Amino acid sequence: MKQNRFRFCLLLSVFMLGNGNGAGAQIPIPSSFPPTGKIGDAELNEISGVVAAQGAGYWCHNDGGNAPVLYRVVDDGAVVQRVRLSPPTMDDWEALTTDGKGTLYLADVGDNETRRGQYAIHVVTEPETEAQEMSNIQTYPFVYPQGASYDCEALFWLQGRLYLIQKDYSGENAAVFCLDPLEENSITEARYVGELDVQQANRLGRIVTDAAYSANRGELAVLTYFGILLFAVRDEADLLHPPIHIVSAYFGQSEAICYAGDHLVILNETGDMWNYPISTYAPNPSITDWMQY
């Protein structure tokens, strides 16, 4: 949402003033990570989630406050399909994931002011190639333990369960919650799993904006405002282990990441697209150096 953009710009300004680059310094996208595509469609101006489509391309969506539409884009950034979801009403749609078997999970979980009492996961079958509208959508409301409120933008599928990661602007916490099972006609209480270890990253590199899991690689990719944290994950317990690799890169206000085979796909809000082999980001299982903040 627009408030997220303001908060991001403010944090980035503070970071640049305090990291030794000089007041007002610009942080360009590193030459080793140039965009591979550009989405030029004016409708996609607050991209906040992406998954690989079963056919060609990727499904993505805008942030909360926009129409509940799924967009299918291809590698050069062209939008080749739009599917309006009706219902549901989306309060703050922040993330998207898939079970890899044709089901999409839409996370209505954004909460900038951390004051919502209830959240929701919307479940839909992946649209057919010619679909323009879908109304057969299941909605599963949920709450956090003790009725607490959290702002989350990261959703991923692991061993038949959905997981959420907190977006904490303080850079101190990244709570992980599990939604198992989601049940119709009842309100699920999210289960607290623990905290993702993000403390080896710099301050902005701890603010989680999306996540994606690859069962083939046994790997969780966590996107932040200043890079990607890669975790070796085979089961839930591994979520509490330190990252095996940290990539320091600035992708703009990037809030969407997914695996597509052995590639990582990243989108930022303004439509820049990165589609690179995993080896580009993680040539070896060691921690890279970050700027200190």
Question: Can you give a write-up of this model?
Answer:
The chain has two helices and 22 strands. The radius of gyration is 18 Å and the shape is globular. It has helices at residues 2-18, 278-281, and strands at residues 37-38, 47-52, 58-62, 69-73, 79-85, 93-98, 103-108, 119-125, 133-134, 138-143, 152-158, 161-166, 175-179, 188-189, 191-195, 208-214, 219-224, 227-232, 245-248, 254-260, 263-268, 272-277. Helix content is 7%, strand content 41%. With 293 residues, the protein is mainly beta. The strands form five sheets. Strands 2-3-4-5-9 form a five-stranded mixed sheet, with no helix packed on it. A five-stranded mixed sheet has the order 6-7-8-10-14, with no helix packed on it.
In short:
Helix content is 7%, strand content 41%. With 293 residues, the protein is mainly β. Mean pLDDT is 87; it is low at 13-26 and 285-293.
In terms of DSSP E residues, the strand content is: 35-45%
Helix-strand topology string: HEEEEEEEEEEEEEEEEEEEEEEH
- Give the oligomeric state of the chains in this entry, treating copies of one chain as homo and distinct chains as hetero: single chain
Shape field: globular
Question: How many beta-strand segments?
Answer: 22
The value of Rg in angstroms is 18 Å
Q: Ends: how far apart?
A: 26 Å
Largest sheet geometry: 5 strands, mixed
Number of alpha- plus pi-helical segments:
2
Question: Regions with pLDDT < 50 over 5+ consecutive residues?
Answer: 13-26, 285-293
